[in-house]
Design goal:
alpha+beta; single chain
């Protein structure tokens, strides 16, 4: 994971919404497409950007690929962000 890829992926509102959709359940591309007014190729592009940033992972089951949120990346981001909260003021 690189923070550059992570923040780039999170910069797009559609990708952020896809992550919210996946937070409670794993879904296939088709199931994700059904929730949006976007083409299969557009959703596939967004998923590839999320995969590149390690924000989602694929799990294969029979003939389907399910996507789910990779929580560990968010945990790593929180550790990094908390470095800027609290502590001594530096001037």
């Amino acid at each position: 994971m690189t923070l550059k890829n992570t923040f780039k992926a999170l910069a797009d509102p559609v990708r952020r919404d896809i992550l919210l959709t996946l937070r409670n359940q794993s879904l296939t591309v088709g199931e994700i497409v059904d929730k949006y007014n976007l083409s299969n190729s557009t959703i596939s592009y967004h998923l590839s950007m999320l995969k590149k940033a390690d924000l989602v992972i694929e799990k294969k089951y029979k003939n389907y690929i399910y996507y789910e949120v990779n929580v560990s990346v968010f945990e790593d981001m929180m550790v990094w962000i908390t470095q800027f909260i609290g502590g001594e003021d530096k001037k």
